[in-house]
Amino acid sequence: MGGRGLAGTALAVAGKEIRTGLRDRQAVVYTVLLPLAMYPVLFWVMLQGFLVMQGERERTEVRLASGLAGERSRVEEALIEPSAEVPAGPATLDWHEQPWTRDDATEALRAAELDGYLAQPEDGGIEILFDGSKSRSALASERAEQRLSNLVTVLRVEAAGGDPDALLPYTVDYVDVASSEEQSAFVLSLLLPMMFCVMVVLGAFFPAIDLTAGEKERGTAETTLLLPVPRLGVLLGKLLAVCAFALAATVLNLAGLLVAGEHLLAGMAQAGGDAGIAFDIPWGAFPRAAPLLLIFLVSTSALLLAVASLANTFKQGQSLLGGVQMLILVPTVLASLPGIELTPALALVPVAQTALAFKGILQSNAATLDLMLVAGSQLVYTALALALALRLGRSEALSLGSGEPLRLPALLRGGGAPK
Amino acid sequence: MSELALRTRDLRKVFHDPERGSVEALRGVDLECRYGEIYGLLGPNGAGKTTTLRILATILAPTSGEAELAGVDVARDPLEVRRRLGFLSASTGLYARLTPRETLRYFGTMHGLVGDALEQRIEELVETFEITAFADQRCQGLSSGQRQRVSIARAVLHDPTVLILDEPTTGLDILGTSDMMAFIDARRDAGRLILFSTHILSEAERLCDRIGVIHRGRFLGAGTLEELRERTQREYLDEIFRALVEEA
User: Fold this and answer.
1) Which of A51, A72, A115, A408 has the fewest CB atoms nearer than 10 Å to its CB?
2) pTM to 2 decimal places
């Protein structure tokens, strides 16, 4: 009876691992169900939260007090009795007839008995005192400032001898020359690269442990070593399976994120009274970024598989990969910060290079040379990760899980099992 | 005398332990086994039986020495050795999330069986080892006896000429042990070599055509029970074993 070739073996092993993986409740939850359900649920909760907060904000009554000398000034009138020039805000203002001293007001603000206080310093103008650590007080200051700014315009017209009633109302329109797709691409470029890297790691995390430490724990490592096929084919098959899970988790996650995000933004725009905001996903950027993203997916899967093979139990694998997860996520988050762009130097930094390249492709400002540098160095890192995965995967001490202490240099030096 | 099925010469294995340094698990094992015989490798726990069998099954690589199985050098062509060998041990677990039928199909595919030939072979094994009732249940829900039957079917799926069994009755109840012994007898009658390790002396006495004794990594000698009795002038296997250890 003849055996199978390397590619046939890898595909057969991957097929079996994917099938058994999909029968594992944990893998299905993390790879399929969570991505499908998480974002719609999360974003629905966010939208509801936004609507509740907005309604709450509109209904909130803030309490102001005045320390302004003399009769009730026009400032005070403007604050409590809205006119055509000074339109009313959504909240009412409590007015305290008895003027407060500054010290009393400060104490009352700290004690949350008062939300805002108008004072008149000696050098003129008006001060608005508030407690920035209290949301209601911050809201009071915001509303007072809004109304006073309108009043200031009226007072200026009067001071110049003009007629405030003749003041032509004007509006300011903002015209964004960027297309809705470009605007969406910019917003997504701050979020998607990070989400992509996170999803790849999360998607590969459990399968990588399951196919290495999990096998040892379940006592099937020896069974796999007995397969009458090249060990290299078995390892490649396992890597393929991990990549497949990572890819499925990532694609489902990103699809869920984009669809749910689109609905969230539309809902928020409607709630905010601006139905004109459009969210156009820049689909064209994805095929351009796909080769780099796939290389990252393979190298990350290989790295996680290699590290997980050091563990003898699932629990040990989780703690080992937890560290690797952080090593991948930190540069990803840093690369996602606004203002950090792809440069030739950053194009060589593992992980960050992928996030920055994806960001640049989404924003259409990545230089071709930089992208080529990213691809070249990514391939080198992938080759190293694969070599490490294959080296450790073929290590005799690791393949059966001897329970001996984990010492990476010794393992790398040590002899491999038969091919 | 029948053809040689398995031969080792001065087989040695050294493990590197970070705490204890180099540990010599095998210090020169010489075996010669023929087709149509049951050869028992006898020794206490930690004697080196499992290491020897794992080297023969290409799970471990020898540090030095030679091993040949079914005419193939274990170190030079491990892949061919695995194609000709059936191996079963207590630690050879079944894939919990596959059914017995899927397990057999997976291994059959890896052995190059396809299509009708594969399905026919699976059905033969399912019937022979009385797996039918649970052939489509996942292995994780099977009893230890049922698992053992599936494991045996998996090990003989490709009709290997050499069968290595490492402590095959560990964890089995009386019926399971009896079934295993019957299976070993039947394979011998079919002209296969069965090399099995045990520390249960009654099993070795009851089954083996020849017995090899191993202790602390050293091979102390081999022969039929009668030959060993003659050599040591002892009647029972436990006394024979002790005499060989003292002799060494």
Assistant:
1) A408
2) 0.79
